[in-house]
C-alpha cells in the first residue's frame, strides 16, 4: 500500500484514546499515593531513642541557664501558674505525629513524645527586660547555641531572642511590652522512649514530673 493509500485514523478513535489516557492518569496517581502511604506506615520515624526523664532534665537545665542570665533576682517555684502576677513554670509532654502521607491517618507515632518547658515572669519594665534579653543572648552564644533571631517585632510590640542547638533543642525568651513580662520556653524534637510498651497506649504523653525551681541572680 502506498503512502497515498494509507487510511486516515478515525476521529472517534483519537477521542477514545485520549479519554482512556485522561482516565488512566488519576488512577495511576492514586495507586502511587496508596503505595507510598503503605510504605511510610510500615517504616517507623527516624527519631532518636531517649528516655523522657533525660530529655526533661536537659531542657529544664537549658531553661535554668537562660533564666539565671536574666539578672532579675526572681524565683519561680515548680508548677507555678499565676496570670495576675504574670508568673509561670510548667513542664509537659505531648505525642508526635509522623510526617508525610502517614500523618493523614491521624495516629501518633508509637512510643514517640516531645518535651516542652514554659515559664513567665511578670512586672518587668522595658529597661530591665531588654537588658535581660541581651544577657540571655550572650549566655546562649557562649554555650554554643545558634542565634536564629534577636530583635524587635514592632507589630506585636515584642523583643525576642530565639536560638537552636544540635539535637533539635530550641529556646526562646520574649519581652512583651503590653504585659511587661518575660516569657521563655525550651523544647526538644520528637524522640522515642526505649522503654515504651503497648500497655503505655498509642497516645503517649510520658509523665515527666515537676520542673525545677528557677532562680535568677541579680546582675552585678
Keywords:
220 residues; globular; alpha+beta; eight-stranded antiparallel beta sheet; 10 strands; two-stranded antiparallel sheet
Describe the overall structure.
Helices cover 30% and strands 27% of the residues. With 220 residues, the protein is an alpha+beta fold. The strands form 2 sheets. Strands 2, 3, 4, 5, 6, 7, 8 and 9 form an 8-stranded antiparallel sheet that branches. The protein starts with 10 loop residues before the first helix and ends with a strand. The relative contact order is 0.21.
List the helices and strands and how they pair.
Layout: H1 11-42, H2 52-68, E1 74-76, E2 81-82, E3 87-95, E4 112-121, H3 126-142, E5 146-153, E6 158-165, E7 169-176, E8 181-187, E9 191-192, E10 214-216
Antiparallel strand pairs: 1-10, 2-3, 3-4, 4-8, 4-9, 5-6, 6-7, 7-8
Number of strands: 10
| SSE class | alpha+beta
Through-space gap between termini? 102 Å
Based on CA inertia axes, which overall geometry fits? Answer: globular
Instruction: Specify the biggest β-sheet.
Output: 8 strands, antiparallel
Low-confidence stretches: 30-43
Order of helices and strands: HHEEEEHEEEEEE
Q: Work out the helicity level.
A: 25-40%
Amino acid at each position: 500500500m502506498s503512502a497515498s493509500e494509507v487510511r486516515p485514523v478515525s476521529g472517534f478513535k483519537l477521542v477514545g484514546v485520549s479519554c482512556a489516557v485522561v482516565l488512566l492518569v488519576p488512577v495511576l496517581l492514586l495507586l502511587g499515593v496508596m503505595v507510598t502511604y503503605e510504605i511510610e506506615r510500615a517504616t517507623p520515624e527516624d527519631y532518636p531513642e531517649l528516655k523522657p526523664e533525660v530529655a526533661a532534665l536537659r531542657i529544664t537545665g537549658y531553661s535554668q541557664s537562660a533564666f539565671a542570665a536574666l539578672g532579675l533576682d526572681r524565683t519561680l517555684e515548680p508548677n507555678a501558674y499565676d496570670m495576675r502576677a504574670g508568673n509561670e513554670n510548667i513542664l509537659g509532654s505531648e505525642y508526635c505525629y509522623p510526617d508525610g502521607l502517614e500523618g493523614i491517618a491521624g495516629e501518633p507515632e508509637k512510643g514517640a513524645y516531645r518535651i516542652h518547658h514554659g515559664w513567665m515572669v511578670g512586672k518587668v519594665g522595658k529597661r530591665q527586660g531588654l537588658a535581660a534579653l541581651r544577657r540571655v543572648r550572650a549566655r546562649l552564644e557562649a554555650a554554643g547555641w545558634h542565634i536564629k533571631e534577636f530583635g524587635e517585632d514592632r507589630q506585636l510590640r515584642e523583643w525576642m531572642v530565639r536560638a537552636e542547638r544540635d539535637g533539635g533543642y530550641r529556646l526562646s525568651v520574649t519581652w512583651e511590652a503590653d504585659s511587661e513580662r518575660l516569657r521563655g520556653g525550651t523544647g526538644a524534637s520528637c524522640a522515642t522512649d526505649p522503654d515504651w510498651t503497648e500497655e503505655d497506649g498509642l497516645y503517649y504523653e510520658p509523665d515527666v514530673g515537676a520542673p525545677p525551681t528557677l532562680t535568677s541572680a541579680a546582675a552585678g
